[in-house]
Hints:
Layout: E1 2-8, H1 15-27, E2 30-36, H2 45-56, E3 64-69, H3 72-85, E4 91-97, H4 106-118, E5 122-127, H5 137-145, H6 149-157, H7 167-193
Parallel strand pairs: 1-2, 1-4, 2-3, 4-5
Helix pairs in contact: 3-4
Amino acid sequence: MKIGLVPMAAKPYHAGHDALVRLASAENDKILVFVSTSDRDTILGSDMIKIWEVYIKPTLPRNVEVQYISVPVTGVYKTLEQAEQENSKDEFSIYSDSIDIAKYKEQSLKKSAKEIYNDKRIRLRGIDRSSTVDVSGTEMRNLLASKNPKDKKKFMSLLPSKVQANGEKIYNILKKQTNENLLRRFVNELLVSR
């Protein structure tokens, strides 16, 4: 079996992430997407899990399984370790953008799954953003933090096409938390400066 491993922070999940997952889905029999439960800047992991459950997961291809984990890369290594322990004959492809894929070092992969690695059944698939949808989480969070109505529209246009019908709901969930966190930071800075 060909298994694709796709770790991501996904704060928030955008069209670039979706294109990566769909590419992996087309190239493999089964996909494991490891989604971070940790908070990132002003986006709470718990809010993103709600968004995943209600809006994102129902739109994904059938061979995609989503797993929530504090550190997504850990999910990749644990999956490989388990496959090694079970003497799996499966092939694994790890998907990430072309920069982050370099974080997977030969030494770490061998430590997790020496036989699978030595059999050349682990493949690194670094996908350049420009070949899918050129957007980053940082850009999405900046659009979310903006007060400009045009940025709200741009944010929603950069969501995966299959969830854009719910873009307003997703935006409102994330924007509410962004506003609350920005207010907290402002108050904390005032208190510290006294």
